[in-house]
Amino acid sequence: MKRLDPDKLFVEFRPCVTKTEPLLGRRYTLTHSDATAELFLTVGLAYAYDKVTTMRDEVLAEWRINHGSPYLFVYVFVDGQYGSNQSTIRDTIFRRELPLALEAIMYGDQCLFKACPELDLAPIFIRFDSTIPRYNRYEYWGTPIDYQ
Fold it and tell me: Locate the Staygreen protein domain: which residues (predicted)?
């Protein structure tokens, strides 16, 4: 991978979240600036909706447990602020940029991965949310180690 420029990633840890815990309930909000190409990762117990713009091009993620095993659930809103009119373009952009977004999450929360190396092999599932059936999908996207 290695598309990420660490100098352009800014990470904020919200109250009640440290660099290594908790795992359950740990949520990520990744936003960006088109003008500067900077990425902003907020790690907290709630999504940082105060960082979300009307463009709705953020990436939201959280750790969940299924049958005793952790997995990373990622959510993107394909339709965006203009509804389904821009869904084709937004789906293409999300698919192109998601590897960078996942890399930013893994890099920005690297202390968690060092403390819990078993998370390197946890599955990542992406929920593409759209009113158009062909874009409304739930997909497996590998494991965190694929994006480190």
Answer: 4-147
